[in-house]
Design goal:
Blueprint: H1 5-10, H2 13-17, H3 21-31, H4 39-46, H5 50-62, E1 66-69, E2 72-75, H6 79-99, H7 104-110, H8 117-122
Pfam families: MarR_2
Protein name: MarR family transcriptional regulator
GO molecular function: DNA-binding transcription factor activity
């Protein structure tokens, strides 16, 4: 997955290298959005195992982020869907890495017992 210039400049090289396989696959396809590739070609270009790339492609297809025809794969042309994926997934991964995953029980312990006044107004 591509990243914005600000992230590129402020993120360390180690953090950038830790992109997930699906993010790397999606990033490659986004950079080559005018072409379709076989899984082994993608794997070769980004230096990953073909099996890992194939698994990532299947998962990305389940999320409607890539298209598959015969043995070829291409990124979707649904930019709204892509924007939603990159923003949410990337942010969640970065926050979980830096702050740890959320503990629902901790949230419940500190949640107010009464609803916010704006919620009551809507009822």
């Amino acid at each position: 997955m591509s990243i914005d210039r600000d992230t590129f400049e402020k993120t360390s090289e180690d953090e950038l290298e830790e992109l997930s396989v699906p993010d790397q696959v999606l990033g490659f396809l986004a950079a080559n959005d005018d072409r379709a590739f076989k899984a082994r070609e993608i794997a070769s270009q980004i230096g990953l195992d073909e099996g890992a790339v194939s698994t990532a492609l299947s998962r990305l297809k389940d999320r409607d982020l890539v298209e598959h025809k015969a043995t070829y794969w291409a990124i979707t042309d649904d930019t709204e869907r892509l924007d939603g994926y990159s923003g949410y997934e990337r942010a969640t991964a970065l926050f979980n890495q830096r702050l740890g995953t959320e503990d629902k029980e901790s949230w419940r312990e500190h949640a107010p017992e009464e609803p916010h006044p704006s919620v009551e107004d809507e009822q």
